[in-house]
Structures are given as structure tokens and as C-alpha cells.
Write a structure and sequence with these properties.
Helix content: 40-55%
Distance between the termini: 16 Å
Shape: globular
Number of strands: 6
Number of helices: 6
CATH topology: Rossmann fold
Structural class: alpha/beta
Strand order of the largest sheet: 2-1-3-4-5-6
CATH superfamily: Alpha/Beta hydrolase fold, catalytic domain
Radius of gyration: 16 Å
């Protein structure tokens, strides 16, 4: 089983690679696609400009191509902010998806959507408050994800910035980041353990 880890609107920043190495050190295979083709930015505005120029459909297509070689073995989808939204879309459509780890972001869910894999373990880490993930949105998302078959854990971090796990950004909050990663690593380990048990049956 592999973890597919998508970067944020800032591009494939060093913090994403550090996160991947953290997961690899725990024994997981981690794939980190570069959806922006090498472009890395320092502001949300510049990142949104790249996103808008590429278009959501193209970003989804790139994400799907990155996932394709690993689909049969079952993936844990993960991502940061924009990458979390992409991860969510792919996980809900993948009948072999093992889990969904959302760092700092979610995506809307169409009415009637059901997780192709049945019940999908989902963990969300989000700042509180977060201007990109307001409380009303999170409440609606939670209910939609439940209806879609998500088995959801939500962790909120008061006072943290939006991308609080990236130590190269002003959003960084060391205490919140460490807490989030401890929980995320436990989630991935448990998800991997469930997948191994299912495969052994």
C-alpha cells in the first residue's frame, strides 16, 4: 500500500518533501506528484494564479495520472490544502482507497456521492478559525462526508495559521504541527494495519 501525497497551492515546497520523508521513515511508500511542473511560490495569490491558469480539470487529470500506477494495491490519499481537495476527489472515486488524510483543506461533495470503497477512513486537520475552511462549511462538509460513507475524525487547532504544518510559512505553529503529525502517523499506521489484515484473509 502506498500514500499519494499532494502539495498545496504553494507548489512542491520543502515541507511537503519533509512530510513524505517522515512517512517513509515509518515504513510507508510515499508518492509525491509535482502538479505544478516545478513551480513553487511564496504567496497564496501566486499559487492561485497557477491553479487558475492550469484549471481544476487539468490538476485533477494530473492527480489521476499520478495515482494510476498504484490503484490496484490500494492507496491512502493525502494532501495539503488544495492537495487535500484533490485527494478527497480521488479517494471517493477509488474502489480500492484505504484512507483519506486531509491537512488544512476539504472539497465539496456532490449530493448522492458514495465512497466507491464503501466505508472510507477520513482524518481532517484544520486551523480554528480558518478563513479558507469556515465553520459553516466544515459542518456541511462533515454531514456530506458522512452520507458519502466517510468514517471521519476532525482535529481543530485554535490559533494556528491555515498551513500550520509548513515551517517555511508565516502560518507555521510548531505545537499544532507536532500534534497533527502524531495523530496523522497513527491514522496512517492503523489504516495500513487494516489493509494488511484484509489482505491476509
Amino acid at each position: 500500500m502506498a500514500i499519494l501525497l499532494f502539495h498545496s497551492t504553494y507548489g512542491l515546497r520543502p515541507a511537503v518533501q519533509v512530510a513524505a520523508e517522515r512517512l517513509r521513515a515509518a515504513g510507508h511508500e510515499v508518492v509525491v506528484p509535482d502538479l505544478f511542473g516545478g513551480l513553487v511560490v511564496d504567496t497564496v495569490e501566486d499559487g492561485r494564479a497557477i491553479r487558475d491558469e492550469l484549471g481544476v480539470d487539468e490538476l485533477l487529470a494530473r492527480a489521476v495520472r499520478a495515482a494510476a500506477p498504484h490503484l490496484e494495491s490500494g492507496l491512502v490519499y493525502a494532501g495539503f490544502s488544495l492537495g487535500a481537495a484533490l485527494a478527497q476527489n480521488l479517494a471517493l472515486a477509488d474502489e480500492n482507497a484505504r484512507g483519506l488524510l486531509l491537512m488544512h483543506g476539504t472539497s465539496d461533495i456532490a449530493d448522492g456521492t458514495r465512497a466507491a470503497s464503501g466505508e472510507l477512513p477520513v482524518q481532517l486537520h484544520v486551523a480554528d478559525p480558518d478563513p479558507f475552511e469556515p465553520h459553516d462549511w466544515q459542518t456541511a462538509w462533515y454531514l456530506q462526508m458522512q452520507r458519502a460513507g466517510g468514517d471521519i475524525e476532525v482535529y481543530r487547532y485554535p490559533g494556528a495559521g491555515h498551513l500550520f504544518t509548513d515551517d517555511g510559512l508565516a502560518d507555521y505553529d510548531a505545537e499544532s504541527a507536532e500534534s497533527a503529525w502524531r495523530l496523522a502517523m497513527e491514522f496512517v499506521a492503523e489504516t495500513s494495519g487494516r489493509a494488511d489484515s484484509a489482505a491476509a484473509r
